[in-house]
Write a structure and sequence with these properties.
By secondary structure, the chain is of the alpha/beta class. Helices cover 32% and strands 12% of the residues.
């Protein structure tokens, strides 16, 4: 969650739940995970829903321009914006409030595509390429629990 460092409304914020206040405006991209999260867990806060065709960094721009108090965005977006604008900080940098699983859907019985994806991931992992990519893109923002393969038959 990105915010202006000197925003007096946020001095008492210790967790994501503390943002659930009527005087807090949160910027999100319409229909993305942050939007769904905010509607479900922060119903008292005002939402500034940006068009889903917007650049995802626009949520943070809304904070920098004073249109919103907080932007709920992923770590990578907040960290990159912070490099250019140090006055915008990640409120929960060391304590992520949520993680988003990533998966690829494969058409049932498309074993060739499934094998291709699994072999590609195995190659990247076995040769250290996956670790190198994670190091390059700020590993403290990535939380890799484990990779699991499921085969669905029907």
């Amino acid at each position: 969650a990105a915010a202006l460092q000197n925003n007096s409304k946020l001095t008492s914020i210790k967790s994501i739940n503390d943002l659930n206040k009527e005087d807090i405006t949160i910027s999100v991209i319409q229909g993305d995970y942050a939007s769904i999260y905010a509607k479900k867990y922060l119903p008292k806060a005002k939402l500034l829903s940006l068009d889903k065709s917007s650049d995802v960094s626009m949520t943070v721009v809304a904070v920098a321009s004073g249109q919103a108090d907080v932007a709920i965005t992923d770590y990578y977006i907040a960290a990159n914006y912070n490099k250019l604008h140090p006055e915008v900080i990640d409120l929960f940098k060391d304590k992520p409030f949520s993680t988003q699983p990533v998966a690829w859907a494969v058409r049932q019985n498309d074993q060739k595509l499934l094998n291709f994806l699994n072999n590609g991931l195995n190659f990247l992992e076995a040769n250290g390429i996956l670790d190198a990519i994670m190091q390059k893109y700020r590993p403290e923002g990535l939380y890799l629990v484990k990779r699991e393969y499921n085969s669905f038959t029907g």
